[in-house]
Amino acid sequence: MGQSLLITGGARSGKSALAESYALETTGKAIYIATAQAHDAEMEARIAEHQKRRGPEWTTVQAPFDLADALVQSDGGDPRMVDCLTLWLTNLMLSDADWRAQTETLVHTIATQTAPVILVTNEVGGGIVPENKLARDFRDAAGWVNQTIARTCGSVVLCVAGYPMKVKSNDHPV
Amino acid sequence: MGQSLLITGGARSGKSALAESYALETTGKAIYIATAQAHDAEMEARIAEHQKRRGPEWTTVQAPFDLADALVQSDGGDPRMVDCLTLWLTNLMLSDADWRAQTETLVHTIATQTAPVILVTNEVGGGIVPENKLARDFRDAAGWVNQTIARTCGSVVLCVAGYPMKVKSNDHPV
Amino acid sequence: MGQSLLITGGARSGKSALAESYALETTGKAIYIATAQAHDAEMEARIAEHQKRRGPEWTTVQAPFDLADALVQSDGGDPRMVDCLTLWLTNLMLSDADWRAQTETLVHTIATQTAPVILVTNEVGGGIVPENKLARDFRDAAGWVNQTIARTCGSVVLCVAGYPMKVKSNDHPV
């Protein structure tokens, strides 16, 4: 079974940069599985900034919905980095997809990969209870997805100010 | 003196499930001290979901206000799990009770328990400063309660994606 | 080169009290570099509460903008505590200053200090994405400042419920 690592943390805590450096450690090349969809200019700018940081050693795959499929298709070679689970969940919820079932499918897919998988996700439950019901539902769903994926991953780190803190560690030398 | 453990973390980070598993470790039975009050359907659903997870090895005690008293009454036998301090604080603040004085009372009660106590609380200060003054006051109060209870507890863990990270550890083998 | 420590954490997580105790460890005296500006009564009350805790072993310097300069001027003697970077960033952003350039200047200043520097900052990215564009921009800026300063500091800790968790540690015995 390939190594799997979940990197969680707050917004702008350095999760993606950390995931990128881990992804390139093994073969010097990596596959970037992007879940982001640019719905507006702000999101476009954020995606462009992330892409600017990655060089020619990266191959990019778009997977706003079919994340498990993208992992299966890209397995067997270089490490994959999934950026990020929170946007993937957002996409699924906005299109009324069965995000719980798809998360379970993702769990089984991660467990059977042979090449490494590094998944980025967000901590969204550390603030005051949101006044907005939709925000509370999303917060609950994101927390459930994080716990469910963390359970199947060999290692989990919390990223703080750009540095990893060990949450769970079986197979990754953090 | 009995062991005391404070479990803190964001919403849906797996704090309650973690507390439940620790509570059952010693005798295989435990007492659940619930501070939640169902004010609306959303809260009722959340309480019901938590109850569904607990089996017949649990005895439930309701203590939305008199938490120290519930600990004293239930002492001497199985471990107790308090779920959670943040809702208890909410109840006290909404009824204009002296939550600082009651927290000090709780500190003294925890320090004199003979059976283990596991307390669940929430991290609510990790987001942007709330625009709402009441939310800022609650955030300040919750942070103060967490620090005050953490000082008296033998161990403190931060729960992230279902896993405990050691914050302070004297007597609990996390 | 002097020791440098960044203390991050949520609101009311005990960061300032922790920084104060570290600052007094070396010589029993310390310099408090305050970035806060009292714009309203709530802020005044918060500043007054922080001051009340500090005794005559403290010298206070106000530096809402010229933080690098305050460090240079106060170098060579007792440890300095900067409280906090998040308010400093707020001041810079509100006055349309070049906060990125000033952060880079601060990085170089920290790297050349001879007396210890302890910097307090805030985790603000752990909640739901704010609906307000200004809040999102601030959150992004604060995360970038935290990462940038963390890189130059010898040690970084995350404060939870009053206790430090090691994030990065080169030279500080946390």
TrEMBL record, chains A, B, C:
A GO MF label: GTP binding
Catalytic reactions on record: adenosylcob(III)inamide phosphate + GTP + H(+) = adenosylcob(III)inamide-GDP + diphosphate; adenosylcob(III)inamide + ATP = adenosylcob(III)inamide phosphate + ADP + H(+); adenosylcob(III)inamide + GTP = adenosylcob(III)inamide phosphate + GDP + H(+)
InterPro entries assigned to the protein according to its UniProt record, in alphabetical order: CobU/CobP, P-loop_NTPase
Keywords: ATP-binding, Cobalamin biosynthesis, GTP-binding, Kinase, Nucleotide-binding, Nucleotidyltransferase, Transferase
Catalytic residue positions: H50 (gmp-histidine intermediate)
EC number(s) per entry: 2.7.1.156, 2.7.7.62
Binding site for GTP: G9, G10, A11, R12, S13, G14, K15, S16, A34, T35, A36, D83
Pfam families, per the entry: CobU
Gene Ontology biological-process entries: cobalamin biosynthetic process
Gene3D superfamilies attached to this UniProt entry: P-loop containing nucleotide triphosphate hydrolases
Pathway noted in the entry: Cofactor biosynthesis; adenosylcobalamin biosynthesis; adenosylcobalamin from cob(II)yrinate a,c-diamide: step 6/7; Cofactor biosynthesis; adenosylcobalamin biosynthesis; adenosylcobalamin from cob(II)yrinate a,c-diamide: step 5/7
Job description of the protein: Catalyzes ATP-dependent phosphorylation of adenosylcobinamide and addition of GMP to adenosylcobinamide phosphate.
Family: Belongs to the CobU/CobP family.
Name of this chain's protein: Bifunctional adenosylcobalamin biosynthesis protein
